[in-house]
Design goal:
It comes from Sphaerimonospora cavernae. This is 4Fe-4S ferredoxin-type domain-containing protein. With about 70 residues, the chain is of the alpha+beta class. About 15% of the residues lie in helices and about 35% in strands. The chain is built from one helix and four strands.
Length: about 70
Amino acid sequence: MPDPDRTSYARVVQHTCDDCMPVSCELCAAGGLRFIRRTDRSRGRPVVRESERLITCRARGLWRDLLLGLAR
């Protein structure tokens, strides 16, 4: 059953390189909030995980930390 807190459409605001790495990330916007979507293609079938929905300033901070290798 789909999660009712999730939207069916999200706009990709920024993304990491997805052609050269098996794991890519996207900073997405939906419903006035932002979140990070991580796609892992290292084992064949893609596995997609999403962060919690955050206000823009918190999501940008998390995105920055992810790009700098500081986020977990």
